[in-house]
Amino acid sequence: MWILALDASLACCSAALLADGVLRGQRSQAGDRGHAAALPPMVQAVLRDAGARPADLDAVAAVVGPGGFTGIRAALALAQGIALAAGVPLLGVTTGEALAEALPADQRRGRAVWSVVDNRRGRVVLERFAAGGLMPEAGSGPEVQDIAGLPLPAGPVALVGDAAEAVAAALLARGADAVATDCRLPEAAAAARVAARRLAGRLPPLAARPLYVEPPAVRLPAGQPV
User: In Å, what is the CA distance from 100 to each residue of 11, 36, 48, 104, 157?
Assistant: First the structure.
């Protein structure tokens, strides 16, 4: 099963190719701009590294957010084009799923995993995953929270995402058992592994559409209707 995955949701963009669970190629570039220009040559590189063509793919995946408006749209547009041309399914992966998947087993053992993404408006977007897997905690979905108003975890929690350090400090101050991990930015390789589980039916389907928890922070030209 060959899966090409793309990510440009936060301050990095990446592409990866997974073949039957084995990573056959990956490329990444740091920065929160230029994703639309950087991703196509990355895709060409990972396919070349594996000696593969788009026609060899069984699925394409893209990280759908939460994250930056422009990067998410760039990754999804490219992923949609490749999937359409290859005639294969297009799968969505959330930012939190990709971050949680990248966390080493010893760091998540016995702990729930919370993905906390800085929304650049003084708040975070929270995704909560139960201990031992990538299933969301019961009744939870991506939600915007003030750091000071975050719910207290029911037990030990490992934090991933670019706001992990700030959230860990806030939760520790309130008596929670919270650890900030080094998984701060999602990677396409982890997204590909999530997509493989989704394709096999081990995770619920997720449409490859932008996942915006709140309206994008954009300014419209003067006089243009909202």
Answer: 17, 25, 28, 9, 12
Alpha carbons 4 and 24: distance in angstroms, whole number: 10
The per-residue pLDDT for 226 is: 40
Average pLDDT over residues 30-45: 94
Tell me 218's DSSP state. Answer: -
CATH number of 2-95+186-199: 3.30.420.40
Residue 35, SS3 per DSSP: helix
Tokens 């930015």 — which residue? 185
Per-residue pLDDT tens digits for 99-157: 999 999 999 899 999 999 998 777 999 999 998 878 888 666 789 999 999 999 999 99
How far, in Å, CA of 37 to CA of 224, rounded?
A: 28
Q: Which CATH number fits domain 97-180: 2.115.10, 3.30.420, 1.10.10, 1.25.40?
A: 3.30.420
Q: Please give the Cα distance from 174 to 10 (Å, whole number).
A: 28
Rounded to whole angstroms, the Cα distance separating 43 from 153 reads 39
Tokens of 108: 């998540």
Strand partners for 52 = none
Q: Is the peptide bond before 153 cis (omega within 30 degrees of 0)?
A: no
CA dihedral sign, ordered 152, 143, 208, 4: negative
C-alpha 137: how far from chain center? 17
